[in-house]
Amino acid sequence: MSQTPVAARRRPLLLPTLRGYQRGWLGADLLAGLSAGAVVIPQAMAYATIANLPVQVGLYTCMVPMLVYAMLGGSRAMSVSTTSTIATLTATTLVSAGVAAGSDDPVPDLMALTLMVGVLLLVCRLLRLGSLVENISKATIVGIQVGVGATVAVGQLPKLLGETSNFSGHGFIRSLVAVVEAVPGANPVTIALSAGSIVVLFLLKRFAPRVPGPLLVVAAGILLVAFAGLEGAGVELIPPVPQGFPPPSLPSFAHVPELIPGALAIAVMAFLESAAVARGIRKPGEPQIDSDQELFATGAANTVGSFFQVLPAAGGFSQSAVNQGAGARTQLATIVTVVLAVLVALFLGPVLSLLPQATLAALVFVAVISLIDVGSLVRFWRISRNDFWIAAATAFVGLTAGLLLAVVVGILATFVVVLRELNRLRIDVAEPVDGVLPVRLMGPLYTANVVANENAVLAAAAAADDAPADGAGIRAVALELTRLSATSITVLDTLADLDRELAATGVELRLAAVPEPGAVIARRTSWFAGLEAAGRVYPTLEAAIAGNAPVG
To answer: Which pTM does this prediction carry?
Structure first.
């Protein structure tokens, strides 16, 4: 559950991270923005290819969504564009909706999908569902990411061998088949370029993490095509990249019903990833991350960005880590990255058109391999088998039945575990005192567990009456309800039924320590009002046992 500190609520709506800006931070923010841009721009372009979309869609995602988040978001260093998980779910959604195969131009449908994701996030913000969404466990996220990592990594292999098709959106099994089909036509020069790019990226990531590996690999690929004649050797290039800023346009709503399941899954993952990254990179002393503010900022980034041909956007860990590692103090660093992306779009289109597809495939491959988090799976197995099986089941469904279904299975499994935990009986029954049985309810009462708690109290009363410690049966049950801050008709009716059941055996029910918010609601029932009038509602459990000083 998230908590929203008072200070966080008072932050300004626009540019909250720039409040109290100091001139000495400017150099660090400029450097961080350029460093993050060197990673996020080529990476976002590569992620667009996962969904078989033009690379400029990824470039555009580094503009409007990033700018909107910089104006509204609460994380000082988080960089919001797209991620491999979001891009893969986008690919799966477009394929399952029939857009990828049945449309010559999937971009208008992509815009509709991004708009739907933004609207869903804004609706969640309106309903203040940030804390509810965050109940989705880390095991679910790890399972989904394992499925994404394996699916996308295998899906990139045909491109690394020299093919132009990408089957990541068709699932893990179809991607495996595509690899087998691609082997006979593999291009040796493309394989060499792919292998070299992957080795360089891994080595830089391991031994020189501050060096922008994606930028170096992209630059090397372009230079090799320009001066070494790779295109003549059969190396496939990306389609030509248009110059200029994307003009605002309207999405297509022709496939909205088919896009809804994917939009729901992407919205959930976009918020979960963004919240996880924002909290993971927050430094001590910085304002706490407010879930509802992040919902609003991420939702607005997607909603506004959808009219500019962008992928669904979320906080990405790799570019955010680069941003923070380079010394970003505020979201001004993100604005610098946006300016860099705009300059690239305005002036470097012809240069980017020389980029080999295998180079982008290598970027994606290295990025998604890290999603196969074996270390977390081992940790789950060692600490919590429930978490391990949730992660394993989610990953298995993702690899066999599809990533959208994996999101559904993971979320359902998480809420099953949460509900099972909430439904676990937590009552503390003490020894009777002068014929009064003290009972404490240690957990909240709600519709799904109130009957079980009623039965447990009745059983405790019956046991105490059958085996009295002092030779006499009990005459009252003192029930402490400190967790009844919120209640419902079902809970109140069940408590009234408990009163009647005990009265039928000659035992009086006394309530103790009912919080005032719950009591305000309960007083609207004749049963609770009658209990108060009869002096059977007490301020403490001790007073209820003694039978004196009732409330009211």
So the answer is: 0.81
